[in-house]
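Entry:
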Amino acid sequence: MHSIRIRGLGAVLLFVVAWSPFALSSERLPDGFRGKCAPLASAALNRWGSKGDWQRELPGAGEISSHRSPSKEVGVWLALSKSEAGVIRAVRDSLNLRTIIEWAETDCVPRMAAKPIRYRIPAAEFQKSFTDERLKALLIRSRAGLIYAWSPQMPLSADGFLEVQKAARKMGLPLTLLLDPQADPTAAERFAKVNKLPAQAIRRLQSLELLNRGMSEHYPSLVVFQNGEIVGRAFPGHKDADRYLAFVSARLKPNSRGDRKGSGQ
């Protein structure tokens, strides 16, 4: 039995959890995550729906190893790190909440904190944005498709849209356009009007899933989805239609083209 403290929303809660430090788990941890606390971290990650698709990241201050992975739930990502002192830290991030569990090698007692995530943009504007909830609806609505993120600060975004539109039409796939969340709204509307982008093109990208896939690292960028999941990371930069076709074809499985209930644009 272990006691866990949860800090969040101005309160500290204490409850008891029957976790054995020797519990077995099927979650495979990245290299370097060994020791008597590792099974506990593994079990927690299993409960959080880990896919085990760990991506190595640059360690932060005081860390010797850091990794990140998508979970089985769209919009929920997991992180795993180990400090120089041997503390293993597991993090579950969703759009509104961050949950952290730490295990020290000295006792393997799980210490847990839950912290709400707050956003600087007004709530009304956030509601109009393309969030993970809208992404989930799109993944249900369409068997496969493309999502293209653009920015008025990157003029090639307009030409890239024409090229990716050609590729999407040739493959019979719906195309969704999303706006750089940092873009000036006036500049974005003017750019969209001058370049004849669809009205939906000014929806801001506020999906944790897509941001973690690298869609905001460079504009324009493109991701592919299929069978309810985003496939791989974003394809950055302006490309011609043939390059987009090659990229999309490599990501999609056979017989996956088409739309269940209309366009996702």
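The CA atoms of residues 6 and 13 lie 5 Å apart.
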